[in-house]
Design a protein that fits this description.
It is built from 21 helices and 23 strands. Strand 10 and strand 11 form a beta hairpin. Helix content is about 40%, strand content about 20%. Strands 12, 13, 14, 15, 16, 17, 18, 21, 22 and 23 form a ten-stranded mixed beta sheet that branches. Strands 1, 2, 3, 4, 5, 6, 7, 8 and 9 form a nine-stranded mixed beta sheet that branches. Strands 10-11 form a two-stranded antiparallel ribbon. Helix 13 packs parallel to helix 14. The protein folds into two domains: about 220 residues, Alpha-Beta Complex (Spore Coat Polysaccharide Biosynthesis Protein SpsA, Chain A); about 250 residues, Spore Coat Polysaccharide Biosynthesis Protein SpsA, Chain A, CATH 3.90.550. About 10% of the residues have low confidence. The protein is of the alpha/beta class and about 675 residues long. The chain is elongated.
């Protein structure tokens, strides 16, 4: 027989769920209604309405006059459309449409190349440049049956280098008759070209090791037999070596060559990002390692064909003294039917080997985790296993809005991670229903209500609560947060307990299911801004960045989890930032101590931003904002000047869509 009390409880929960969903939809409807009212009140709408009335009066529907007018307008519209099309081709899609294409328009990239890469005169100047110490760079290429024109272009791209102290190490296992004569001719033309003819095909790893065995350089740079180096690639590598003499691991940005030989799809990478590397091999091309490091880790390993470079990168990263990113496009990855640059399914085995490479890496560094396929080929999902359940202290500042706070607390109650305590910091609530709700919360032994009686200061309020926290981890949470997936807190904890991680942030949406937070770019908008702002919830993002865990410079304090030990080490929030930039400042303090900031899409929540705070619409608030803006620049001016290490300097800082700074 059914339990009427249980049925009633289920009914109440279902009603609460429906009310929550209705609230979100109502808020969205209100936003859309307000937007429509603004449009209708605008001069453009009123003008269009007047024009339509005049059209109907002088050119009635279903008349010959109306048909003749329509034909004339089509001719004019075609000409205007052609002109606008040319302009759009130059400027690329507007920001609100970028998420549909997720690639840089070719014309925009051509402008970037013309502005940022050396011209012929500058290349000639590089040829005459003399380094104080000129390291020898061995370019290592395993060769197996490339088309003659691709092989020819590859070798010529090395010989065209403006830096002269190189050797090209070729190990050939080809079965096609055109390859050997070509390689032998090249070796005769240039003494710096070394050639090893293999009796048998040893696979990608074995052939690569054969090419490595020819190397005598201080450093080895890896090149595929059908790709190209930029003419200034080795010069930039030598420059980076001179500037970073202790570094053993270098990588650059890259792009692709389409089937017509046009440079497309630039990949501007972040600086060293361990969590990003566990999600995908973002290092890829061009990779250069100190030869002694390669020999120390055992060169390429059998069993990882197709992902042998990924395995090498992971092993090298574990022991390299220093890792340097060169933010220039030094490598052109050719797209053709047999290459993964164009056809990711051409080497499906490579992705299984990549997954195994990550699993072996995690085991070597003592991380308890399993590796799964990501949302697309070449992406991976590392699932960390919790060896313990550390106590999380959840800190929520609050003033009235009991209904909003209740939704937030309910999200905690539904979370799959149950080992938490909740501190609500009461800050001058006036409504009796708020205090009634506090009384209800106090029945739960995990909940404490602390009263803040001083003027509101977000940083000071959170420091006050953190001082009273009992947990090993601190979760700073806004009261207008509502969870989507029940394991959101568990996913944050899994990241936060990893060695070297100082703070973790979540994927937050506005009520209309558009992106509010997917990591913060420091420097965007003058201080900091959200990448991918207003992208649709299911959009993959630039280079699919909305789909995998990655390193960022900062995450929002609306939902920020960090070890209490790290919080104490940096001295907590800087209370000079009363309302603005305190979370960004906190994260930069974490970075300054050598910890990493991680953003994960596996924790999804709604953030009904600014519902309780209100807009910056008074002179007092604007003065306060200006003071905190100036304080941030005073404190972090050098960081802003250097640029966000996880956001390429080649992207614009006035837009959240990774648009090129083409000039």
């Amino acid at each position: 027989m059914d339990d009427p009390h249980a049925n009633l409880t289920l009914a109440h929960k279902r009603i609460a769920q429906l009310e929550s969903a209705l609230s979100r939809r109502t808020e969205l409807l209100e936003q859309r209604t307000a937007a429509l009212a603004n449009i209708q009140a605008g001069k453009a709408f009123q003008f269009a309405n007047t024009v339509e009335k005049l059209m109907t009066r002088f050119f009635p529907l279903h008349t010959r006059r109306r048909a003749m007018l329509r034909s004339s307008l089509k001719l004019v519209g075609g000409a205007v459309g052609w002109l606008l099309g040319k302009r759009a081709a130059r400027n690329g899609p507007p920001p609100e449409q970028r998420y549909l294409t997720e690639s840089t328009p070719p014309d925009e990239y051509r402008r970037w190349i013309a502005r940022h890469e050396p011209n012929s005169a500058q290349l000639e100047k590089q040829r005459g440049f003399r380094f104080a110490t000129a390291p020898k760079i061995s370019v290592v290429v395993p060769v197996f049956n490339p088309p003659a024109e691709y092989l020819d272009a590859m070798v010529k791209s090395v010989r065209a280098q403006t830096y002269a102290n190189w050797e090209l190490c070729l190990a050939d296992a080809s079965t096609l008759p055109h390859v050997k004569p070509l390689l032998e001719a090249f070796a005769k033309q240039d003494a710096r070209i070394k050639l090893q003819m293999l009796e048998n095909n040893l696979g990608i790893a074995g052939n690569s090791n054969a090419a490595l065995a020819l190397a005598t350089g201080d450093f080895v740079a890896l090149l595929d037999h059908d790709d190209l180096l930029a003419p200034f690639a080795l010069h930039e590598l030598a420059t980076a070596i001179s500037a970073n003499p202790q570094a053993e691991f270098f990588y650059s940005d890259e792009d692709k060559l389409d089937t017509a030989g046009v440079r497309v799809e630039p990949n501007f990478k972040p600086d060293w990002s361990p969590e990003t590397l566990r999600s995908r091999n973002y290092i890829c091309h061009l990779l250069m390692l100190k030869r002694s490091l390669v020999e120390r880790i055992g060169c390429f390993r059998a069993g990882f064909d197709g992902a042998q470079d990924y395995d090498l990168v992971l092993r090298a990263s574990e022991v390299a003294h220093r890792i340097i990113h060169i933010p220039q496009v030094l490598y052109h990855w050719r797209m053709h039917a047999a290459s993964t640059a164009l056809n990711k399914g051409s080497k499906n085995y490579a992705y299984d080997h990549g997954k195994n490479a990550i699993a072996k890496h995690l085991a070597r560094v003592g991380v308890d985790a399993s590796v799964h396929d990501g949302p697309s080929l070449g992406m991976y999902h590392v699932v960390y296993h919790l060896r313990s359940q550390p106590l999380v202290t959840v800190i929520i500042p609050n003033k009235d809005h009991a209904d909003i706070l209740a939704r937030c607390v309910d999200s905690l109650a539904k979370a799959s991670y149950a080992n938490y305590e909740l501190i609500v910091v009461e800050n001058g609530s006036q409504l009796p229903e708020t205090h009634a709700y506090y009384a209800e919360l106090k029945r739960d032994p995990r909940v404490r209500i602390l009263e803040w009686t001083k003027p509101f200061n977000y940083a000071a309020v959170n420091n006050f609560a953190a001082h009273a926290a009992r947990g090993e981890l601190l979760l700073f949470l806004n009261n207008d947060i509502e969870s989507i997936n029940p394991d959101w807190l568990e996913e944050l904890v899994k990241q936060a307990v990893q060695p070297g991680v100082g703070a973790v942030g979540a994927k937050l949406y506005y009520a209309d299911d558009t992106i509010q937070h997917a990591g913060i770019v420091v420097g965007m908008g003058g201080v900091a801004g959200h990448s991918h702002l207003n992208y649709p919830r299911r959009a993959p993002g630039h280079m699919q960045r909305l789909q995998y865990a990655q390193n960022v410079a900062a995450v929002t304090g609306a939902c920020l989890l960090m070890p209490k030990s790290v919080f104490d080490e940096i001295g907590g929030f800087d209370e000079g930032f009363v309302l603005a930039f305190n979370d960004v400042d906190l994260c930069l303090q974490v970075l300054a101590k050598g910890y990493r900031i991680v953003w994960t899409p596996d924790a999804e929540l709604y953030h009904l931003e600014s519902k309780t705070r209100g807009p910056e619409d008074t002179e007092e608030k604007q003065k306060r904002f200006k003071r905190e803006y100036d304080l941030f620049h005073l404190k972090w001016g050098e960081f802003l000047k250097a640029g966000d290490p996880y956001y390429s300097r080649n992207f614009r800082l006035d837009r959240p869509d990774f648009a090129l700074n083409a000039g």
